[in-house]
Q: What sequence folds into this?
């Protein structure tokens, strides 16, 4: 019997809300993608950083032939309605808080048919909420290979609600599911009769207070609702004691149902194959070899594949800047648009290839089931320093770029472990540090023309990457002792069987991650770019006019005049003044005001160091590193007459760049991923302090 | 009586009871019911965590977590 209230609601203009609820790995997200396609958006649930995915789908009412739009929400996977993690609490709150805009009209219980017993626990709890529900037995393809078939008619009769079988990976049964949106109804009788196990007066008083859709729902809300106020009104002990009994009672009944509605015949090919693969992937030697090989392949791809589209994006923006600059009249507006906004946008867009590639690979690892094995083999090592098996991927991705790496920490469900991973990832030497490292190393080790495979330069570069890694692990240890854990760290999780990844899932993940980055972090990055542009192109008083006047009668060639003038302008600008202001402060590290200016401008991105140095030393062609190197190498300290870039200064600078948080994009992403300015500020402070102190020690020791 | 943590790879046992209340609720939800047959399938390279086959699927848990499950 379809729900009459639901029929009424269908008449209103607002789309009905459908929540997909199920265990992790039950194919919920594939079902969500199959229903909504690209008609979806990823956001955050208020107050927490749990992905909230909502989308729309259309379905035709088989009775009236009218087409209705439904709003679909993919709730985080949960094993029961007794939440034990933040993800599970979010699902709980959406299902129980009638005030929330996401509060669903219809619940679709997604059940992994190859794992029915465990999945039915949650489904029968949902059934007892007494709200319109549809049971969707998913992953029928795997179940069939295991020799499991569901007798739908019997199941329908037993549960008293619509029951359908689907295969969301192959998009089978979608029409059937949509038809059943209109048939959704609440169960005629609860699965577990509460009054058999709890005091009737107790149930009544709690239910009268919470007025949820059923007595069971009111009790659950009382015991596990997020709102603190509700906790003190009633004694929750009787219900807490009941929780494990409830679970056991349900399993007992489920066992009986399974024997009546399922037919098993032993055929476990997929499981056997999966088991064979696990013999290698969890092997003490092979396990690590396979993991390292996969990692090697991923990071080679990120480094090399991303380079081409990054080049196209950069030259595209250069072209755009030149075109805009030529089309508009010269002046401050032109400069703001070209050197401020377009340059800022370019700085955002240039991350797209790396983000898309990394998340493409992560989606393959997740979707195939291998990611769970990565956590499995790395858990013990990572736990020692307060991290999680899942921290490995972000940490190593940090070698390419901290921005996508930090975005990928969402798979770590423990809050403390996730925060530590976010805090230490930027210490891994990213690709933006590479140009700085290369320039400074070449200042210390002049090119001798030989082209050996093992070179001093290579060892120095490796040492820098190693220093970054060691610092990250040390910082993790410190954070492990400082931060308080709000929840217990578990490793009780399913290792899903291996499956071929679905291209559609991978594509949607890449698309959504890029979109989220552009919309959320992009704004902050462009804003800071404009500020930095202002600082380096404006000067107090009329100092710029004076410089221009001075060079107007210059006898030098046009290009030489330009580079000399730009150098002087930068020195006179706010950024230049700031560089000079901080000189006394950075003197103990061996840095002069010229380096000071570069530190200021580097905040846009570390590699800007090279460009700023080129401007300061009037090296002319910014792309030509050898000319910058010559000028820097020839620079002498005006007081002592010694080389400015001594070994001590170079190492001090290298260490500074290895440790300092000079990346506004990372800070913007940390803000986005932690939902507060607290963490990016702590990160900026601790990394700056670490950089300053380390450089100080290095410089004092070497000079 | 021994714990799940003491099984050898490939060895099966029947769950008897739990020694940790909070963990037991979680384990029961995952299908580790008293009376259920379990089998130690894989052990991670460094001796922890374990992968256990229970009610037709593979469940991983740390050695310390397995030590709270008493088996026959």
A:
């Amino acid at each position: 019997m379809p729900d009459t209230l639901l029929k009424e609601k269908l008449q209103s203009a607002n789309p009905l809300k459908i929540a997909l609820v199920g265990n992790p790995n039950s194919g919920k997200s594939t079902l969500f993608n199959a229903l909504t396609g690209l008609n979806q958006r990823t956001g955050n649930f208020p107050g927490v950083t749990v992905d909230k995915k909502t989308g729309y789908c259309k379905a035709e009412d088989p009775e009236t032939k009218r087409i209705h739009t439904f709003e679909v929400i993919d709730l985080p996977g949960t094993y029961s309605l007794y939440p034990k993690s933040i993800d599970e609490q979010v699902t709980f709150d959406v299902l129980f808080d009638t005030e929330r805009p996401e509060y669903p009209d219809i619940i679709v219980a997604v059940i992994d048919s190859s794992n029915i017993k465990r999945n039915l626990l949650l489904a029968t709890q949902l059934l007892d909420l007494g709200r319109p529900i549809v049971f969707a037995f998913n992953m029928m393809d795997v179940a069939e290979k295991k020799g499991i078939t569901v007798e739908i008619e019997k199941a329908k009769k037993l549960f008293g609600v619509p029951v359908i079988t689907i295969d969301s990976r192959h998009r089978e049964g979608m029409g059937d599911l949509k038809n059943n949106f209109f048939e959704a109804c609440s169960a005629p009788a609860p699965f577990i009769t509460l009054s058999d196990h709890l005091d009737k007066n107790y149930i009544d008083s709690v239910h009268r207070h919470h007025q949820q859709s059923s007595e069971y729902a009111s009790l659950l809300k009382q015991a596990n609702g997020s709102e603190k106020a509700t906790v003190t009104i009633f004694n929750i002990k009787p219900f807490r004691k009941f929780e494990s009994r409830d679970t056991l009672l349900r399993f007992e009944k489920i066992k009986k149902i399974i024997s009546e509605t399922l037919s098993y015949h032993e055929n476990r090919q997929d499981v056997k194959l999966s088991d064979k693969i696990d013999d290698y992937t969890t092997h003490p030697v092979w396990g690590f070899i396979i993991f390292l090989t996969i990692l090697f392949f991923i990071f080679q791809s990120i480094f090399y594949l991303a380079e081409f589209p990054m080049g196209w994006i950069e030259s595209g923006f250069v072209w755009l800047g030149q075109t805009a600059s030529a089309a508009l009249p010269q002046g401050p507006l032109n400069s703001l648009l070209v050197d401020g906004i377009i340059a800022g946008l370019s700085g955002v867009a240039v991350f797209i290839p790396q983000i898309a590639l990394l998340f493409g690979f992560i989606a393959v690892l997740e979707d195939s089931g291998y990611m769970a094995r990565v956590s499995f083999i790395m858990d013990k090592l990572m736990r020692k320093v307060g991290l999680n098996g899942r921290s490995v991927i972000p940490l190593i991705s940090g070698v390419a770029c901290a921005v996508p790496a930090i975005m990928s920490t969402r798979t770590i469900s423990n809050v403390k472990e996730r925060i530590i991973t976010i805090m230490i990832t930027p210490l891994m030497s990213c690709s933006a540090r590479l140009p700085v490292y290369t320039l400074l190393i070449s200042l210390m080790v002049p090119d001798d023309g030989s082209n050996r495979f093992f070179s001093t330069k290579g060892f120095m570069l490796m040492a820098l990457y190693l220093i970054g890694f060691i610092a990250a692990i040390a910082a993790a240890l410190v954070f492990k002792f400082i931060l308080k854990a709000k929840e217990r760290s578990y490793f009780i999780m399913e290792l899903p069987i291996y499956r071929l990844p679905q291209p559609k899932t991978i594509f949607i993940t890449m698309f959504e991650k890029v979109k989220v980055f552009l919309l959320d972090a992009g704004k902050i990055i462009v804003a800071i770019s404009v500020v930095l542009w202002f600082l380096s192109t404006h000067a107090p008083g009329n100092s710029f006019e004076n410089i221009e006047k001075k060079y107007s009668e210059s006898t030098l060639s046009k290009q030489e005049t330009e580079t000399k003038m730009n150098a002087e302008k930068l020195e006179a600008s706010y950024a230049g003044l700031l560089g000079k202001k901080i000189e006394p402060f950075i003197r103990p590290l061996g840095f002069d005001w010229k380096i000071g200016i570069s530190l200021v401008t580097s905040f846009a991105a570390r590699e800007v160091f090279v460009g700023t140095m080129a401007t300061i030393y009037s090296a002319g062609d910014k792309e030509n590193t050898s000319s910058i190197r010559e000028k820097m190498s020839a620079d002498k300290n005006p007081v002592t007459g010694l080389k400015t870039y001594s070994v001590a200064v170079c190492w001090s600078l290298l260490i500074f760049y290895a440790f300092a948080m000079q990346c506004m994009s990372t800070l913007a992403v940390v803000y986005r991923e932690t939902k507060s300015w607290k963490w990016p500020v702590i990160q900026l402070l601790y990394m700056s302090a670490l950089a300053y102190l380390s450089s100080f020690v290095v410089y004092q020791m070497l000079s | 009586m021994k714990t799940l943590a003491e099984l050898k790879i490939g060895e099966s046992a029947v769950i008897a009871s739990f020694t940790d209340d909070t963990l037991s609720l979680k384990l029961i939800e995952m299908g580790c019911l008293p009376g259920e047959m379990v089998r130690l399938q894989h052990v991670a390279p460094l001796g922890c965590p374990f992968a256990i086959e229970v009610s037709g699927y593979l469940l991983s848990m740390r050695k310390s977590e397995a030590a709270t499950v008493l088996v026959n």
